[in-house]
């Protein structure tokens, strides 16, 4: 038997369990913005080309304009707000600010999320790897150069921190 | 937010997430043409937003364990299930060398974020002329495994794609996996793609070569896509390369054969003349790279 068209789903958004009533044809993008109220997830092209609607679904970046809300049932959704729950920016967010890696800021949350994931899976990306990895995102203001600088700097700081921790453990 | 407009919303449908292939097949058998299979959704949702596809039922097959197969069986080849996302395929070790043409193709096929969702069979089943996956699958003699309540069957990719957006899948069948045959020992392969201003291929070429310096054992394969309504493997060049003649001469002859075999099309992306020219260019590049000259 197929389910009814309206149903309750439960997902964890930025660490908080949310029960939301949805219809089967609703997009995760719309539900996260309009029903959960997380506005850093932006709508751009609606067809998976611009990357503005990126969220981390169970830790991996996906474009929420091409994901059904019902597919996120029981899953973990993280947005840029979720990286800094207490308002304490994570290093990549802080470096985006420091390097001026934005102009209008509309695409920034999505770039931050993808950069955050990239550094998790590849702690030492080359400039080319960063460019490749961000190829599914568009920044209309064209602040790519500063974003790449921010990501490279973040990788450097992460590694220094790791190195310092190793040294400390040795002592 | 989306104001109910097409392009921004999906038409109404009922979603279900079958837990086994059997359950999915039963649902599909019940609803047939009224149901669509959802794997990555990258193609399906785009078409649904444009109201080109308007299914009453959407069957999400991502949760079905049997379709998550990603297996290298050595000389028996490679199996990629319908629910495996492209990033998983891309990271799979055997693709790095032995099936490099497929790796290159997937790398260029969509961006890293979309690849967390999109699937190889999803791309293939679109069967639009500009999709990239058919050419590399053709040089690895790939077969699509389908399932229905009546059982399973295997269809070579060359027969699977019948025309523009037309595939050899019955309304009660699901494409469950694609099987690639192992390439000859020590072979190398590559995929080249020429795009329009977007990411859609205007012309793409997949080629494979083993034993380039020994004519009698030399294996050369070439397939192209995006040029004509259906992708093609040019089998006539395969014998040609077994002859003892200077490589450059063989390449010249092969390119002539390839150009003759194709009936290029004109569409919004490019003219037939341009496509045909680019096919020549990409074929020469592919042969030179693989044959080392």
Short description:
The complex is a heterodimer of chains A (171) and B (293). Chain A is an alpha+beta fold. In chain A, 40% of the residues lie in helices and 16% in strands.
Separation of the first and last Cα atoms of chain A: 64 Å
Strand order of the largest sheet of chain A: 2-1-5-3-4
For the largest sheet of chain B, list the strands in their spatial order.
4-5-10-6-7
> What's the oligomerization state?
heterodimer
Task: Give average pLDDT of chain B, whole number.
Answer: 94
Largest sheet of chain B: 5 strands, antiparallel
- The stretches of 5 or more residues of chain A where confidence is low (pLDDT under 50) are none
Helical content class of chain B: 25-40%
Q: Characterize the main sheet of chain A.
A: 5 strands, mixed
Number of domains of chain B: 3
Poorly predicted parts of chain B: none
Could you name the CATH class of the largest domain in chain A? Mainly Alpha
How many helical stretches of chain B? 11
Q: Write down the Rg of chain B.
A: 20 Å
How far is the first residue's CA from the last residue's CA of chain B? Answer: 57 Å
CATH topology description of the largest domain in chain B: Uridine Diphospho-n-acetylenolpyruvylglucosamine Reductase, domain 3
- The CATH architecture of the largest domain in chain B can be given as 2-Layer Sandwich
* Mean pLDDT across every amino acid position of chain A: 95
